[in-house]
Amino acid sequence: MVLSVKNLSVTYAENVAVERISIQLEAGQAIGLLGANGAGKSSTIAAVLGIETSTYDELVIVGKSPFRDRKEVFEQVGVQFQETRFQDKLTVSDACKQWQALYKKTADVPALLQTFGLAGKEKQLVKLLSGGERQRLAVLLALIPDPKLVFLDELTTGLDTKARRMLWKQLLAMKEDGLAIVLTSHYMDEIEALCDKILILRKGQTVFHGTIQEVLIASGKATLEDAYLHFAGEEEQWG
Ligand SMILES: Nc1ncnc2c1ncn2[C@@H]1O[C@H](COP(=O)(O)OP(=O)(O)OP(=O)(O)O)[C@@H](O)[C@H]1O
Q1: In angstroms, what is the span from residue 176 Cα to ligand 1's centroid?
Q2: CB atoms < 10 A from the CB of 22, how many?
Q3: Is residue 110 lining ligand 1, measured as CB closer than 6 Å?
Q4: What is the mean pLDDT of each run of 10 residues along the chain (239 residues)?
Q5: Nearest 5°: CA angle at 26, between 148 and 175?
Q6: Domain ranges of the chain
Q7: Ligand 1 lined by 40 (C-beta under 6 Å)
């Protein structure tokens, strides 16, 4: 098991942001964490990584505790955040080198640059990359540790169709090689392309956890988008 979370809750002051969430993930599997804005997806990821305080019955990530074995977990887990911030004078090559320096063992960076369509852009300032290129760089950096598990937050927001397809293809190939993925996305085609199972949060509560086929049956809807809206409580109202 690459990730085992049992009954994890996150509370801010008196507000419960996530209540008793459980996730089990094996090597080569991907789970989609779904929910409306504010449903608790980012809080869950932060808690699983040990960045946010939480209560839980079990929290084991790549066989370790994110608190006691922070270093070992860090070496084997990649994280792509929604908006990665880069320094003004940083080039693509500098960013890769800085990231590589953080890890003992790293993936083949020139190969990753090729895969992500950034070969030839090594000397360009990160701030001058297009939004989509910067997004691809953020995913590339998350893969530099050659992780067993990667957290991808809003993976292809802002990417064009071709870039999205290329990224999916690459991640599917990495899954075949055993990479486990926790993905948050508001795009249901992305979830269908990459995920073996989904967990839908609504105001911090798990309202569905299962496969895509199961969510269609349970909701009585024909498409994942309709099934998602049914469970996430986004039908016909804000919030
Ligand atoms: N540091 C914090 N302090 C207090 N409340 C917080 C904090 N972080 C998040 N929250 C609240 O916890 C709830 C869950 O937020 P979270 O960011 O986990 O949602 P999300 O599902 O990731 O949303 P989005 O899709 O908008 O990124 C929200 O009500 C949010 O306002």
Answers
A1: 32
A2: 15
A3: no
A4: 97 94 98 94 94 96 94 92 76 94 92 92 93 88 94 83 87 95 93 96 96 95 94 65
A5: 55
A6: 3-232
A7: yes
Task: Pull the structure tokens for residue 160.
Answer: 């064009």
CA of 114 to the centre of ligand 1 (A): 35
How large is the C-alpha radius of gyration of the chain?
Answer: 18
Backbone angles phi, psi at 151, to 5 degrees: -105, 120
Interatomic CA distance for residues 122 and 204, integer angstroms:
41
**Closest Cα to atom 8 of ligand 1:** 43
Fold of 3-232: Rossmann fold (3.40.50)
Q: What is the residue whose two structure tokens read 């292809």?
A: 156
> How far apart, in whole angstroms, are the C-alpha atoms of residue 141 and residue 69?
22
Instruction: Quote the CA–CA distance of 50 and 64 in Å, as a whole number.
Output: 11
For ligand 1, is residue 41 a contact (CB within 6 Å)? yes
> Which residue has its alpha carbon closest to ligand 1 atom 17?
42
